[in-house]
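From the pipeline queue, job 12 of 40. The input is one protein chain; the requested action is below.

Action: predict structure.
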Amino acid sequence: MAPTKKTDRKAVVDVAAWTFNVVTSVGVIIVNKALMATYGFSYELLKFILFANFSIVGMNVSLMWNSVGFYQIAKLSMIPVSCFLEVVMDKIRYSRDTKLSIVVVLLGVGVCTVTDVSVNTKGFIAAFIAVWSTSLQQYYVLHLQRRYNLSSFNLLGHTAPAQAGTLLLLGPFLDYWLTNKRVDAYSYNLASVMFIILSCTIAVGTNLSQFICIGRFTAVSFQVLGHMKTIFVLIMGFIFFGREGLNLHVVLGMIIAVAGMIWYGRASSKPGGKERRSLSLPTSRQQNHGGFSDSNEDEGKV
């Protein structure tokens, strides 16, 4: 009787294991399909919140683990990454002048801000995550607004509560893991609480303005023209906190960066400066036997 009972028990366990595997495998496929098909917006919101949270944590950790110089290089690299995302996902095509103007902006801001550059493994990983998550988050700001016809306020209203909730739950544990310090162990006082509230209030305004700007322009334009903020910060620092850091190469970098931004604004607004590739282009080429209009148009674009 004992061997029979063991055999029966083994059979029951085997059936239960296979049933559990089949139910969960089929279930996850059905649920994911429902998410993507029936609840596509909710699924895309989850992706956006994931990218946004990684962006917030990644940028702060990158600043904590890297030198200021490498942190600035990482921020500058968001522009080519955003260009790559637009080219791959939206089939955007940039003219040669638009590409060159972006290079000029990168060069100018780099001359202004990049000083000491030291790299370590964990800092590089944090910067890599920060750059890609921030670029994807900014890409999805425009994507969600256009695809679902949302205003900046609507998108922020959909995403902010979920972001706040997940960061509130995971933030203290992540903070302790990264810094070995507990949030509740901090000695809070009236001044620190007021500054925390002020910081959160300004952050809401910053997020809203980001959504508005990217919704009206694109993630690349937001990144390129956004470096004007870096120039303003440097100028205001020189005005209010002395002229310690003001030297020839910083002034030269500012001039180059501003010139690049002006060039980018003009180049990207011209016809063909930045446009979506047409899917009907091969058909029109076949119909145009002379081929002169298409070839001339392509020569002005890269």
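Job complete. The longest helix spans residues 2-37.
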